Amino acid sequence: MPIGAAKSSQRSMMSSLSGGQTSQRSVVSFTDESVGSGGGKGSSKHPPKAVEKSAANTTARTVDTGRGSSSPSRGSDQDRSEKPSKKDSGSKYETTSASNALSSEGSSEKKGLKPGEGLYARKKARVSKFSIMNPLGFMDPQTKKIFWYTLFIVFFSIGVFNGRPSSTTFFMLRTMQEKILTAKTANDVTWETVLDIDSLWDWIRGPLFDVVYSDNTPGSKEGALLGYGYIINGIRIRQVRIVPEVCRPDLPEWAAQAFDLSEEHGAKCFDAVRAGAITSIRGTGNEDREPFGAIVGGERVFQWSENDAWAAWTLTELASYPPDGYMMDLPAFNATKALDVINLHQKHGFFDVQTRAAFLSLVTYNPNLNMLLITRLAAEMSEFGGIVTSSSFQSVPLFVYDGFWGVMQLAFEALFLLVLLKFVLEEVGWALHLRARFLYRFQGMFILLVFSLVCAVALLRATGAAAIAGQTFIGEEQRTASSTAVHTKFKDLDNIGYFRVMEDNILGVLSVVIYLRFFLHLANSTVLKHIYGMLRSALFEILPFFVLFIIVFLGFSLGFYVVFGPYVKEYRSFMRTIVTNTRMIMGGNSELYEELYLVNWIMAPLLYYTLAVTAFVLLFNVFLAIIVHTYAVYKNELERDPEDRLKDGIYTTMAWILSFFGIKLNLTNRVHSTPPPPPPPPPPRAPPPPPPP
After folding, report:
1. Structure pTM?
2. How is the chain split into domains, by residue range?
3. In the prediction, which pLDDT does 218 show?
4. Where does the Polycystin cation channel PKD1/PKD2 domain start and stop, copy by copy (predicted)?
């Protein structure tokens, strides 16, 4: 043994004996797992490993424990002690002595540790971190947000879409639609081919009467469509009339003479209907509310009456119509009386030149599916003359939460509302803290938007349920009433269909908004972060491209509308033209070219092929080139940044789930770990010695 080392050892032994101290020096390193798994010496699965000294005689980390105060011995560098180093930010490493694992927490004050930093305090903190009261304590804040928002999306998807109509409802609607719309008169007139008032009366007396009152399903009774669709309170036919007005005074002389020859009291014009809000905009309304028809019993046959309070305005492609008007009610269970009502109204001219629109409302109930089927037919006699027909078929469940799947829907919607309430309360706290600056908080505005839309859906469902609950049966009144009577107790259920449409529209908006918002919660993922950065960088090049594309597209759309608007159905309006051309450049409407060519064989190929080449071949390829170039730039950055917090959060969540099944994953060096630095470059080689002289 060298003489210097022997002297150093001797001095250390003498110092220990003279001071009555038990000094233990050990240089060890162990993880929190090894300390927390046991309680005493030897209980760790992974015993402490001694840290070897480096070749450069690096100073080791030492901790001296014992009674009284310990003083470092003088002599060699090995007797000099340091304070414990801080924990490493990546994996949790500490340095302490083996005897310190058995000492009490009180000794931590003697060795200079603060209260709460002792061994058992740290162990208690680790246990509480994974406790039942705080099951998400192992997650970092960003991963916790992703977890809660994932539950939010899952509850929304299962709860909301669990109550959607099934394929059975689709076939029920299609069968009813074909049954009513394809029925023909003796002259082969269907509902879609009704062009004038005479053909309209023929369709009412023929196909409609046969479909509603014919018992073509053995075993079913009168008034049951397709065997199971029972009519609710009969059929209501309503018309909206207008008052004739004096034509404009600046008519050409030949036109005025034509009117004078045909009109008994001068030239009269019949404008589009103006009622309700349109009245205040255009000055005066022209809706007719006066009685008309033959005089029977001292009064006119047909009287204007208000519709049910729940009735809604009717919106069509040509105009919007008020819910009131002149009514013709057909009983549901008496075919003879229904035919008498039709004959009387046709005899006294129920439809004439002042009629602007006629609406047929038919509601059936299917007890097998617990479903209401609402049928709406519209015959518009617009100012251009003739009749334009349209139809609408819609199914509405009588009870929203019915059966097993209804209970499941209610349960998941309740969970969705609880998570939404948690988000709302958090944003209320932010609003109280930020005050006016809360308006600039995107997360808060998003939660308020979702909460408002959910409240709107709840209000629509409650209103529809109230309308259904207020329905009454008027079968006895229909049997005893006269042929011209208007049933004041009639409950118009058309608005329930409108409520259902509005609810579906709101849920569609919610679906898009909620799912798109999930991408912002994943912004910490390196992969998605690079994609966001790529889109932001490409935005400065995409915006000028879209300006160029819109200019070209609008120019071609205006050209198509001017040339083909009066002749082709798909170009009957400018908005319809934009939709048609969008489908065209996306690859649809390939058969439309033949119709365009028949209308104008010169402009059809010029506009069609020029738009295809300009928009698809040139502009779309420029757009793809912008995206590909930007993605290539950011892909290089992605390859240089392998750390991904999203993957770390997924691994941590998997470890928490597997822990319930007794499977433990050691993710100490996995979660949020920084890759080791590259090895230092080798030292430069010494230059070769110069050659001997």
Report:
1. 0.65
2. 21-101, 167-242+287-399, 526-643
3. 66
4. 409-632
